[in-house]
Every structure is written in C-alpha cells, then in structure tokens.
C-alpha cells in the first residue's frame, strides 16, 4: 500500500466516463462507488446522451450526470493546458530506439509483402509519407491502404495481435521488437 498516488492523463472525460472511474478507483478505491454502481449512475446515462440517436431528455440527463460527476472529482483534478505549462517544460528530447522484427514478425512481414498489390501499397506509402508524421488525404481516404497500415502496425507491435484468441497461448511475448527494446532501455 502506497502513502500517495498520482495519475497523469490527457482527457479522460472526453474518452469515457468509465475511464474516469478506473483512474479514481486506482487513486481512491470506492470513491465513485463500485464499477457496477458507477456504470448505472453515470456511465450508461452519459453514454445514452452522447449517441447520435439521443433524445432531448437523454441529452439533458447526460449533461446533468456529467455536471454531477465533474463536481465530485473537481477537488482532486489539477488541469493544465499545454500552453499554460509550455514555458516551464524543458526542451523536448527525442530518442530513437530501433526495435528489429523478431523471426516470426519477419516471416509474417515477408509473406504479407508477397500478396499481390501489397508491394505497390507499401511503395506508395513510402513515397507519399511527408516525413512530418502525417499522411496525405489521398492515402487516408484509401480504405485498402488503411488496412495495410493497420496490419503493419499490429505486426510491428506484436504478432499476437494478428492471431486469433485461441492461438495466443503459443506466442512467446518476451521476444519481440518493442518489448526487447524496452528491456534494453530499462
């Protein structure tokens, strides 16, 4: 048991009320009640009011629940915008750590690149990438390209993300790129 706990997050209420509950349950267990009671009192009503098909009544109830939740957590939230603290922050340091593909990742990648049309998509992606971390609107609007990017992202994160759940037991989680790089950093 720790004497104190701190949580840093971006915009939890914009993500979901459930995330707020999880953060506060870590900080102060049962402060917002059990997960079931929180979901009943706040989670579902807030979610109902945010749906596109929400009625005026459910939007009103959602806003009221958000206000009540905000009042409960406000004493424990210190909110600062980037602009407010930017002058106090040290210069950003970017460290690039190469995380090579594991053997299984390499085999999957090589096999994936042999699929007709994939090589041209990967080539187009390399040509179109503007070097600033953003893709052009043409690439983003191409559904097949987005699927290619998603597949490659999942593969690079961990090949288990590509496997069906029943096959996950056979994957060794300790030997892949990001995890190996993390171990070396630590």
Question: Main traits of this protein?
Answer:
186 residues, mainly alpha, 0% strand
Structural summary, described in words:
The two termini are 24 Å apart. The mean pLDDT is 79. This protein has two domains: 12-82, no CATH class; 103-185, no CATH class. It is mainly alpha-helical and 186 residues long. The chain has helices spanning 12-15, 17-27, 35-50, 56-73, 82-85, 103-113, 118-128, 137-141, 143-157, 177-185. The protein is 56% helix and 0% strand. The chain is extended, with a radius of gyration of 22 Å.
In short:
With 186 residues, the protein is mainly alpha-helical. 56% of the residues lie in helices and 0% in strands.
Question: Radius of gyration, rounded?
Answer: 22 Å
Instruction: Please give the count of helices.
Output: 10
Described by its quaternary structure, the protein is single chain
Order of helices and strands: HHHHHHHHHH
Give the averaged pLDDT, no decimals: 79
Distance between the termini: 24 Å
Query: How many domains would you count in the coordinates?
Result: 2
Helix content: 55-70%
In total, how many beta strands? 0
Q: Which structural category fits the helices and strands?
A: mainly alpha
Strand content: under 5%
What summary fits the major beta sheet? Answer: none
Label the overall shape: extended
Low-confidence stretches: none
Question: How do the helices and strands line up, and which of them pair or pack?
Answer:
Blueprint (H helix, E strand, L loop, with lengths): L11 H4 L1 H11 L7 H16 L5 H18 L8 H4 L17 H11 L4 H11 L8 H5 L1 H15 L19 H9 L1
Helix pairs in contact: 2-3, 3-4, 7-9
